[in-house]
Amino acid sequence: MISNEVLLDSAKFAPQFQSAQPFKYLCIENFFDIGAAERLLAEFPSFDPTKALNEFGEVGKKAVHTALKDISPFYSTVYDYLLSREFLDQMSALTGVPDLLPDPRMYGGGTHENAHGQEMDPHVDFNYDQDHGFHRRLNLILYLNKDWDESWGGAIELHSNPRKPETNEISSFNCIFNRAVIFETNEYSWHGFKRVALPHSERHRSRKSLSIYLYTRSRPQEEIAPSHGTFYVPRPLPFEVSNHKPLANDEIVELNAAIKHRDNWIEHYQKLELQLGAQLASHANHIKQLLSETKPIVSGPARPHGSSAGIYPDGWASPNAQFSIMQKARLSSISIHGWIPDHFAVPMCINVTVDGTTRAVTVDRSGEFSVKIEEIDDVVMHSVSIIADRSYNSAKQTGEGDSRDLSYVLIDVECTISGSSQRTPANKNHLFRRLGTPLAKLRRALDY
User: Domain 4-220+228-236 in CATH: superfamily?
Assistant: First the structure.
């Protein structure tokens, strides 16, 4: 459906796209075959208020139909084409962005209709696909407005930085029929459009477009940012406010509208922060619960019991680890077997406390270590605490890797009775630990 004229010129478009400022973009005339563009306009869906809810939950003046297949058979054909390898490869040829992927859900895309009075503040779009975590890379907007006078507003604007109006540079393109604007989605691809202001005689019209968003599995490392939604920057006032200039009535109306608009966004972002805080708290509680269910490997006539702290599912332990074990027979000793990697700081002082009895050892070199407690009370449940005076955090010390504060790998907890073998069970568990967590869990289950 991309016109042959555009495809024949694709070799010239990619360099233009890659060198464009303030970010990568293209503006292409007669983008689709004329017959396809005409049918898109002729079968464009009517304005549906149920599809016009804005960010504040109000019925606005912008309606979005993401389900293209439900609009008409021709729109269904267009939908299939937009998901095809042919279209994706053509878009890669035009922009130089390889390995593009579609969004079958058309999240945020589809047909966009903006009625009289609608505008869109400069914004940066959300940056990841909702379902797979793919990187959002390209926006393609195809305009479907015949005989659209530029004075009616609605022209797309590409901004260098709307947060600094005094230096903000704007490239503007009228939203005329079969014109496509393609631009890269990144953390500074600010874009929007001024209010649609139709004359009374033209208010049967609306600003119509088809929006397509494309993705890739990866992107250059320097462009990667944490996942976020769409960020908006309200426009500055189109007039100057000073002590010596009285405001006209229409300026007062616009000033009040701008204040209300900004207040709405402040309230919106406050609600988002509260939602995010609740989600983070829920995740933190879930993680805490999972960690409390992590058990050490216990060999001999005992088993782990109850909650624990400072032990991770992959066997690593924090500087302060605590857990409980339940004996199956009268224990004569409890030994802690661990391992310190070569790059961890030594000497390391390790204090092991079992039921109030403490033994401290200083580990002078990396590798395996053991701490044995032989004064064991004759109780069913034993409380164990392991405190180390050193830890290593790869993220803090090297700028990458594990962000946890770790002291050692807890190989196993060896429980013995008088006359029993002291190390064979531990060696078995050590082997299972090194083979991986699933086998370690199996070994622990067999011990039960």
Answer: q2cbj1_9rhob like domain (2.60.120.620)
Distances (CA, A) of 278 to 198, 229, 272, 285, 414: 43, 17, 10, 11, 41
The two three-digit tokens of residue 368, written as one number: 């395996």
The 10 Å Cβ neighbour count of residue 395 is 12
How much is the pLDDT for 420?
A: 60
CA distance 430 to 440: 9
Q: Collect all residues with Cβ–Cβ distance below 8 Å to 160 and sequence separation of at least 6.
A: 21, 22, 167, 168, 169, 170, 188, 190
Report the alpha-carbon distance of residue 275 to residue 300 in Å, rounded: 48
As a whole number of angstroms, the distance between CA 274 and CA 113 comes to 31
**CA separation for the pair 267, 341 (Å, rounded):** 50
- Using DSSP's 3-state secondary structure scheme, residue 362 falls into strand
DSSP string, 168-234: --EEEE---TT-EEEEE-STT-EEEEPPP---GGGTT--EEEEEEEEEES---GGG-------EE-P
State how far the Cα of 294 lies from the Cα of 443, in Å rounded to an integer.
15
Tens digits of residue pLDDT in 352-402 = 999 999 999 999 999 999 999 998 988 999 999 999 999 999 988 888 888
pTM: 0.65
Q: What is the CA radius of gyration of the chain?
A: 32
Gap between the Cα atoms of 388 and 268, Å rounded:
46
Q: List the one residue out of 171, 175, 158 whose CA is nearest residue 112.
A: 175
For residues 308 and 298, the answer to whether their CB atoms sit within 8 Å is no
Q: What's the token pair of residue 284?
A: 């933190």
CATH number of 298-393+401-447: 2.60.120
Looking up tokens 């202001």, which residue turns up?
197
The number of CA neighbours under 13 Å toward the Cβ of 307 is 7
Q: Could you say which DSSP state residue 69 is in?
A: G
Question: Could you give the C-alpha distances from 443 to 210, 326, 425, 429, in angstroms and in order?
Answer: 58, 17, 11, 7
pLDDT above 50 for 439: no
Structure tokens at 198: 């139709």
In the chain, which residues fall in CATH 2.60.120.620? 4-220+228-236
